[in-house]
């Protein structure tokens, strides 16, 4: 029997990630806001957090300050924010869930320059989402 504390890193659903980035940027463009640039640094930390949430089996913003500091140690940023989600099957469902939450919507429409989204599936087949935003 496999040790429950050792969870192999889940694979990214790159197609869903790209779709969600496009949907968020299309929404921002419709409001006259700048398009967010993809950030490899944000992607690295989004992936780590998605793996963490999968290992815990729940959504969280645990260790957000450490994530923001880590991003800032690699890219000088003015501010960092994140949205997390779980149990959506499509990029549009995740976007709509965030859009219908005032705090998540505010983040998606915020004064940011860069973003990355990590979407991975747990062993039960449930998707976990982490989108990080920052402004240089």
UniProtKB/TrEMBL annotation:
InterPro entries: CAP_dom (IPR014044), CAP_sf (IPR035940). It comes from the Bacteria. Residues 21-133 form the SCP domain. It holds the Pfam family CAP. This is CAP domain-containing protein. It comes from Maribacter litopenaei. The lineage of its organism: Bacteria, Pseudomonadati, Bacteroidota, Flavobacteriia, Flavobacteriales.
């Amino acid at each position: 029997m496999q040790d429950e504390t050792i969870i192999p890193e889940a694979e990214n659903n790159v197609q869903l990630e790209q779709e969600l980035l496009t949907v968020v940027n299309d929404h921002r463009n419709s409001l006259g806001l700048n398009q967010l640039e993809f950030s490899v640094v944000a992607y690295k930390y989004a992936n780590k957090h998605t793996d963490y949430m999968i290992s815990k089996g729940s959504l969280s913003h645990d260790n957000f300050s450490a994530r923001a500091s880590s991003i800032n140690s690699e890219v000088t940023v003015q501010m960092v924010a994140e949205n997390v989600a779980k149990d959506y099957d499509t990029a549009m469902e995740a976007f709509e869930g965030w859009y219908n939450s005032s705090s998540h919507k505010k983040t998606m429409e915020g004064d940011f320059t860069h973003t990355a989204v990590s979407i991975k599936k747990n062993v039960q087949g449930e998707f976990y989402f982490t989108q990080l935003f920052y402004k240089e």
